[in-house]
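Hi Q.,

Before the meeting this afternoon, I wanted you to have the beta-D-glucopyranose prediction in hand. No need to reply - just skim if you have a minute. The sequence and ligand are here:
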Amino acid sequence: MAGGFGIDVSKADKVYPGHLTPYVMVTCLAAAFGGLIFGYDIGISGGVTSMAPFLQKFFPSVYHKDAIDKSTNQYCKFNDKYLTLFTSSLYLAALFASFIASRVTRTLGRRMSMLLGGLIFFIGALLNALAQAIWMLIVGRLLLGIGVGFSIQSIPLYVSEMAPAKHRGSLNVIFQLAITIGIFAANLVNYFTSKIKGGHGWRYSLGGAMVPAAFIFVSALFLPNTPNSMLEQGDKEKARAMLKRIRGVTDKEVEAEFDDILAASEASKQVKHPWRNIFKRKYRPQLIMAVLIPFFQQLTGINVVMFYAPVLFKTIGFGDKASLGSALITGIINMLATLISVYGTDKWGRRALFLEAFIGWKFGVSGNVTELPKWYAILLVIFICCYVAAFAWSWGPLGWLVPSEIFPLEIRSAGQTVVVTVNMLMTFLVAQLFLNMLCHMKFGLFIFFAFFVAVMTFFIYFFLPETKNIPIEEMQQVWRQHWFWKRFIPDEHPQV
Ligand code: BGC
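Predicted structure with the ligand bound:
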């Protein structure tokens, strides 16, 4: 979408030769599916915290309010600080872990971060499945958080660096697709484990996280490092051979792209303190995007639905089964709508998808009700589905894709840490505050989120340049040609 501001500069100056080789497909798919562990976590906690045996064992006061004391206000009965901490502690741990992961990603490579992520996550899941006391639950959640922090710090960068520019969007959106598959798988597992007799179903739900953890660990064992990462570690010939292999081109054809990555890598080596550098004026546009995109992504309010869908549906009067069932429906919609983005992001561009999402939201937030007859409850589920779909083809995938492709190599890893930090902090706050806000604002809470959706649409329209088809080490040009950001970019020496 061109917009009225000369913003679409997506006709790249350079087009490197290369194909979507089976090798690059397999490596990007394997890495992107690391998103499963993040998704599984997002989807599992809501269902588990609505299971009576789990509440009875770890949160007896909530259990009492839910099952026995019917006098508590519907909107407030799940408002418990420990229950909230169970959900949100993971995101706090991920936030801190991403700082360590930034260093590992830069010095030891993107692949090492994925390996560590899978391993730590596995241990966390095991601890959760065996939990006898609340501390085991929380420590387990913290370990899961560290695993998630390492993975989401490294995976989007890995895919953005491996993929040829023309297909970078679609391959990267597969990371988001994996997140949505993880969420759905978790919803499904909850649906069945809640039926297990004897009250241990929640153990299977939490322990199930070991499956995606094992997957990411094993696939990271076999994944190669990206050429950019090999150069960062000083392995020039290996990097050239890898680039040639993933692009499926000849020695001669690989030269142009390799030289540009090499130049970016040389510039990167001059930078001893990426953290100091990222605050330089010439990186201001990227830094602002790295903060605002994840900030806005979370202010869509999506995680209210993702974490608390079953609790939310229970609040509006659905029974236990119907609540978990409705969460399954939103899970399917989330997955299917992401496919639209896999298809469209490199064709229609990032801006078009970001902007069109607004329409879906307008439907989504119209479900503003307090008393619910059955037909209205069903209508509300439909509204929530529209809202989830709109998120899934726009802010969901693009909230990860765009920040991962805009940073020059010398500050890329630090930049991704900013993205992860803001995202996790906001996810934490939404998880932490939502039950309390629902208790006080009731459905007015959704009007609050709708306001931010309007603000973020305005922001994208005026300030986000199109990045589709631009080679990753050539990205500087989009800022130089942008009506607003060009004032921050020096004319000469584009990368340094
Ligand atoms: C977001 C998560 C969200 C998920 C939903 C991701 O892009 O970062 O916070 O729960 O999408 O599919």
